[in-house]
Amino acid sequence: MSKLVKIAVRNLLRYKRRTLLTASLITLGVVFVLVFASVTGSFKAMMIAQNTDSMLGHLQVHRKGYVASIDSLPLNLNLRGGAIGRLEKILDAEPEIAAWSPRIKFGAMFSTFVETTSIRLNGIDPDRELEAVPLLAGRVVEGEKTLARGEIWVPELLVRGMKVKVGDMVVIVATNQDGSVNGRQFNVAGIMESATGPGGRDGYIHIEDAAEVLRLEEREISEVAVRLRNFSRLAAVSARLEGLLAAEVNQQGRPIFEVHTWEKLSPFFNIARMIDVMTFFMKLMLIAIVLVSIMNVMIMAVYERIREIGTIAAIGTRPGRILAMFLLEGLSLGVAGAVLGNIVGTVIILVLNAVHITYDFGRQKDLVVQAAVDPADLLMLSMIVIVISVVASLQPAFKASRMEPIKALRHV
Amino acid sequence: MGLIKAENVHKRYRVGETVIHALKGVSLTIGGGAFVSIVGPSGSGKTTLLNLIGCLDRPSEGRMTVAGTDVGGLGRRQGADFRGKNIGFIFQDFNLIPVLTVYENIEYPLLMVQDVPAPERSERVSALLREVGMEEQSNKRPDQISGGQKQRVAVARALVTSPALVLADEPTANLDHDTAYQVIELMKRMRDTFGTTFIFSTHDPKIVGEAEVVHTLEDGRLTGTRNAKEAGHEQAG
Ligand SMILES: Nc1ncnc2c1ncn2[C@@H]1O[C@H](COP(=O)(O)OP(=O)(O)OP(=O)(O)O)[C@@H](O)[C@H]1O
Ligand SMILES: [Mg+2]
Predict the structure, then answer these.
(1) Which of A183, A340, A365, B129 lies at a CB distance of 3.0 to 4.6 Å from A173, suitable for a disulfide?
(2) How many Å lie between the alpha carbon of B186 and the closest alpha carbon of chain A?
(3) For the whole model, what pTM was predicted?
(4) Which residues from A are below 8 Å from B85, CB to CB?
């Protein structure tokens, strides 16, 4: 076997320039895919983290039907009574949940005594909210990063239009479920930068203040944001949670709760998917490059060596062995390209990380490209290249193995 | 019972509409350890006959038996196995494998055809390198040695598997006269040493003189068989 490899490598080295060119082409392809996948992967991870960690949480639980009409923030679809207790019990019992935070969401009027506009508000328990969405406080660009009772974080866009400053008093007026109206003064504690996505332009107040403004007679929750210990377990945990919560039904036998992962809540999921699709097409192109370039080299190799093939066939080399010789030659070329590509690609990624390339994402400035080299990716890519190089050699190698020795020997 | 037995062998090639009748009923017997030459004008069918004996092609009609096997009935892989086991080949253009050294070229049939274990391989290759006088050149590539040396290596390669029969189609056509003579002498010496049957075709009358049995082909028919040991005796084919 090692002798076969030796013969394959020597035959490849016979046409050094051609072999080098082909190997470089494959290397280039591998490098492109590797760097692209890794840089876009880092962008995707950052984007997902921005979304989940600064507002959404990894997944959310609502009363059944809430998300479908989330635009109107319907108070009549809040969770209340025994349902809350049952939900709490299930969430607390789930070992893979790191934190969860209850919210009351409602629409209100925001008044500076001079001007009035509408605002969407989240009533939160600040300590729990920051455990569930740890980057939330980071969005407070001015003022305090803590939220006490009687205080409000106002979204930046509103601040500009209404000329509000930190420390100002404002009034929040909300319509309660029974149709009456209630108002309360709040102290502007912080100004929040907007985030792209649903809820990215909401204001925040304490959950107990929210209950007061809404004159809630019992405890109510509009949504629960959940953070997992391990984000990569999202699908499994959400499925399990869905199963557990589906067992909770109301008197009519209908499920009480609904579970949504961030993917179903954020438009960014489509961008993340688009990135995956692009990576997939890059891989398809790599496959095409490897297929065409190796097939080309192997067809040439067989054609140039017809008399040699005739010789070894005449002296008794079995067809299967001739096939193996040529397959091994294509394989060696593929392995060379894959190995070189992995090395060069990894070096480029390390260099990219080292030079701290920065970019802006929405209002996020100076994000650093932190591309990761995933060993599983390297392995996958190498496997693709190697398998395709063998596939590409199949036809020429088969042709070589089926040659009639006398015809091949007569070939000039 | 001869090593090779041809019985009324015909070979026809179809080229488009026309049929070329290259062998028109050849019958001959060649015994073990013979040193045989096949001569005849260009196009008389020498290569065709050697290809049939060498199990590289099948008769269109008649029977060709080599070492007790009817070679007409062998499939592609069986044919390869039969040749690898019983027949050595020497070619006009030497046909050494350019990426292999002299040593590796001789080793090739043991390694790639017969799967002989390493210690035995090196023993046999070394012995043959010595026999053909190419020990000094064993690490050179074919493009670094002369034509005569290449043909010596080819002789060693043909003999390394200890075949019963070695076929050489015009082995000296690309060599100058002295070198050609030396190669034929080498082949004869190998026959003496190993008892291998050698059959070679040639145009060169001086080389023909070295053969012990000469079969003459003309237009696809065997027209004469001369046995040098019974000098002058001429026999109709
Ligand atoms: N594969 C083939 N297809 C068609 N015709 C062929 C083929 N091989 C040989 N022939 C023809 O068969 C006849 C005998 O050819 P062969 O090669 O056996 O002659 P030869 O005695 O070896 O000649 P030379 O001395 O020129 O080598 C010739 O007419 C040749 O053209
Ligand atoms: Mg000929």
Answers:
(1) A183
(2) 20
(3) 0.82
(4) 316
